[in-house]
Description:
CATH class: Alpha Beta
CATH topology: Rossmann fold
GO cellular component, one term: lysosome
Radius of gyration: 17 Å
Keywords: Hydrolase
Pfam family, one: Palm_thioest
CATH superfamily: Alpha/Beta hydrolase fold, catalytic domain
Organism: Strombidinopsis acuminata
Number of strands: 3
CATH architecture: 3-Layer(aba) Sandwich
Distance between the termini: 27 Å
Number of helices: 8
Strand order of the largest sheet: 1-2-3
InterPro entries: AB_hydrolase_fold
Structural class: alpha/beta
Shape: globular
Amino acid sequence: TNCQLNGTVRNWASVGGPNMGVMAIPHCFSGSFCNAINYIADQFVYFKLFQNIIAPAGYFRDPAQLEKYAEDSVFLPYVNNEAGSDDDKALVKSNFTSLNNILLVMFDHDTMIHPKETAWFQQMDTEGNVMELADTDFYNEDFIGLKEMMDAGKVIFNQIDGDHLQFSAADITNTFVPFLLS
């Protein structure tokens, strides 16, 4: 996850991204069948085999298994500075805080990522409640520099009325293009 690029990234737009991970199989958040499927997924998601062959497994973040997540998940803990070497963590934070602006887009009726608020770096507690960003260690300890960027007024939170990635031409014209050109 240590990504070295030639050139400079000025702005970063996350459009419905599972930035703080997901807690359920897409389109399957509740009900007896979904509860059973998600229970099975929860039991196996951190096995190396699944982590290495099923890309979405790298986005699972179970608040009841954060130690296992940090140790065994092959992707998200490194991107969010919850795992990795001190040097890698410093590089991630430096790269993130060097951005000019950040756009975080959440879809109000998202059925692909659960919780949908993960798009705004919010996470669930062990009881299944979505936590306010300001109540998380991730934010308060400024793992990637999000707090620093918010304090500097460089983070835009945007909501779109729709399901996952169901944005309109007007959203592209009025939100995405101006942001990327700024």
